[in-house]
Amino acid sequence: MKNVLITGASSGIGQASARLLAKNGYRLVLCGRRAERLDELKAELSAFTEVHTLLFDVRDREAVKNAIESIPTPFRPFDALINNAGNAHGLDFIQEGNWDDWDAMLDINVKGLLYVTKCILPDMVDREKGHIINIGSTAGKEVYPKGNVYCASKHAVDALNQAMRIDLNQHGIRVGAVHPGLVETEFSDVRFKGDRERAKTVYQGYSPLQAEDIARIVFFVLEQPAHVNIADLVVLPTDQASSTQIRKR
Ligand code: NDP
Ligand code: 8X3
């Protein structure tokens, strides 16, 4: 049985990935800040696999370290890490950007990903094997109006994905990224700070991806034989050609 740690498992892509991996026999460490969500998910998935939950904010370096060090066997050593926790905060012209939003996006999407990765890596380096899947975004491949700092954070994820693959190559560790386009999750609720009506409009008039679509891709990446590393995958809704070109009906 493979041990996988998923950050951001309390909703969206992380939660859907947890469900699919549980049903396919992966042993899971599920992370997030919302205890009730993770407890419910653990109760649901315990019918299929062993589940351990961890509460921490990826921005808090000490909390990340303590939480990951506390993980008992048999949930470690880790076979795979899915670096998924992240979000956009705000959608504003650069000259109108909110400083707290900028800090949140860079601290969570970039530094948080680094903190978790650093705490997981010793296990993988020691065993000379492991698999890291970074959830990037099309926002890490192109830039769109008002996307500025979110796009910068996901471009950083794209760069770190490549950098990790280069540095960890000598240790036999696979590193790859999945870069989704528009996925209907709580992403826009967070981006628009709980304005559900505005969030809903992001996914209206076309068929966006669903979290389960990305979960299937994550599962596919994990299921490849050990000598195969899927390094970089961009996944769009059929209706989306780029960040700014969406076929609406
Ligand atoms: P959701 O908002 O549904 O999920 C985000 C997850 O990240 C939640 O489980 C949340 O858990 C966790 N998270 C957020 N901030 C923190 C934090 N400070 N510490 C720990 N955990 C945190 O969004 P998605 O599922 O859509 O997003 C998942 C990833 O996919 C993100 O990296 C996002 O950038 C990326 N993505 C999303 C796309 C989309 O259109 N939805 C497209 C491309 C990429 P909790 O609140 O419990 O801490
Ligand atoms: C999420 C997709 O286009 O809202 O990363 O940036 S987008």
From TrEMBL:
InterPro entries: KR_dom (IPR057326), NAD(P)-bd_dom_sf (IPR036291), Sc_DH/Rdtase_CS (IPR020904), SDR_fam (IPR002347). Gene3D superfamilies: NAD(P)-binding Rossmann-like Domain. The keyword Oxidoreductase applies. GO terms for molecular function: oxidoreductase activity, acting on the CH-OH group of donors, NAD or NADP as acceptor. Residues 2-186 form the Ketoreductase domain. Keywords: Oxidoreductase. It comes from the Bacteria. Belongs to the short-chain dehydrogenases/reductases (SDR) family. This is NAD(P)-dependent oxidoreductase. It comes from Aureicoccus marinus.
